[in-house]
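Why predict the complex rather than its parts? Because the way molecules touch one another can change local conformation, and only a joint prediction can capture that. The input here totals 643 residues.
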Amino acid sequence: MKILCAVKRVEDPEQKIKVKPDGSGIVLDGMNYKPNPYDEIAVEEALRIKEKQGGGEVVVVSIGDDKFVTELRHALAMGADRGILVKLATPTDSDGAARLLAKVVEREKPDLVICGRQAVDDDQAQTGQLLAEYLGWGQATFAAKVESLESAEEKSKTPGLQIEGDRVKVIREVDGGLEIVDVALPAVVTTELRLNMPRYASLPGIMKAKRKTIEEIGADTLGVDVTPKVKVLKMESPPARKGGVKVADVAALMDKLKNEAKVI
Amino acid sequence: MNFQLTPEQIALRDTARKFACEEMAPVAKGYDHTGEFPLPVIEKGFELGLMNMTLPVELGGLGLSHFEQALVVEELAGGCAGISTSMIANDLALLPILLGGSAEQKERLVKPFSEKLRFASFGLTEPGAGSDVAGLSTTAVRDGAHYVLNGSKMWITNGGHADQFSIFATVDKKAGRKGITCFVVEGRPEGLTSGPHEDKLGQRASNTVALTLENVRVPVENRIGEEGQGWEIAMATLDNSRPLTAMLAVGIGQAALEHAIAYAKERKQFGQPIANFQGIQFMIADMATELHAARLLSYEAAAQLDAGVRNTLVSSYAKRFAADTAMKVCTDAVQIFGGYGYSKEYPVEKLFRDAKLIQIYEGTSQIQRMVIARELLKG
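Output of the joint prediction:
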């Protein structure tokens, strides 16, 4: 089967992110970028399905400027077959991204689209859902796996999504438990953290990725209005954590919990 | 000159960095403590292509440049220098065959190492012949279609786990370096024994043993090059491997620098982070500057190899400077950590111990200076 995955370039969450003093955004100077971790999980899942089925194609798509090629190459180094870069100079919002992806999906006609549940930069968690809506497809969000953490042997092996004929069975993480849904293909699935542990881009994989194609499509050729509908008004850092206090005895503690923190 | 990395080079480095952070660093302390051989880590590294990087594609390698290997090795060394040394030991052991062997020997004695994880050891140093390589006394006596090897080798990396050995022996002790010849011992034949794992100061995860050869029979087809070519092969091997050992030093130093910076920003004395004090700032500034200089020297030594230029001089600059710099940087990192730096609770004392070895193995810092002076004063 043909699987399409969306891969977004995001600020590396491991580094310290600083908000600009005027609150208009974050400081981008010296910023490192990486593929959105949820999208890596999506690519990993697609590769596992392909490996289990013994064939098929995994296409990775990104929307952005030339720099986004790095994240596409990473997905190709993991093992995806080819990439598509929808070239867009100025950032759009979740809706714009979903509309552009819908056009790519109409052209590529995959059997399944797998997206990360959200990008770790703006944490919107909307693109997958909007995409399913625009395509008129079924969707299963927050796909997870019964085993919450994978054992070493299980790593890079079993897909969590079970393809059965023209349907896909998805285990979803919901509050307090798991829900199993069965969705008609083609469908959109978004991935939860506990679906798999993405493989490394191996050195041979990186060298092979050099020869894989990345097709570039101008966003302006897709006939979609990508003007952001959502505007970020202001960003703020969370308040600095205050130091703790020592209380004299249990009675003082009880008093503070009851009257100050109001938790008991 | 272009100092920019290509996207593939960045990707290679990122994979190595991720491997160092996720697979090596969390277990480094444990292996350092026990001295146990880190086979599970090396197996994972092998699967990811972090070994045999520069082997030609026709021998099953990745055909990466030495420069690219240097980028990867710096990252690995930051994870654990001991594990890294064991991971790159095959490169050193297979180099004599790559540099001096026939096509048939490369196919037979090198290629299998790219197909399955195995270990090969480089056997040059002896109990009585360290810096004085030409003084080695392991003998090889021709007996029909074989040579019979006798002698002992010292400080042999991965020697307890290897099943192939590149052994340097003399066919004529009186001939000095002109008698030295390189042989490949396959498997662990009768007469070849290895001693216990040495209880070392640093790089403790890397297996290091003494080897004894007692009437070990090596077929003539496992002689690399001609009789008497061993010295040349050994020196060419070390020219090749110096940029790598230099990058190991840079990687250790970089890790120490990063720990020192993080700690200096966190540690408060006199009511403020110690990073605010000029005494600490100047230490950090010098550590970073000198490390970067060492890194660039190592890059050049690797780039010369890739360009097919003789790199004896620059690779000796690189190995000497990087090893001495890493030692200095790690000493300063321990100093910035103060009492905590001296404790095994914190990571810099391990880096300090690991760095020391690079001033010693594969040509001490003093030998590098001799090579440098010889290169400059010759003719």
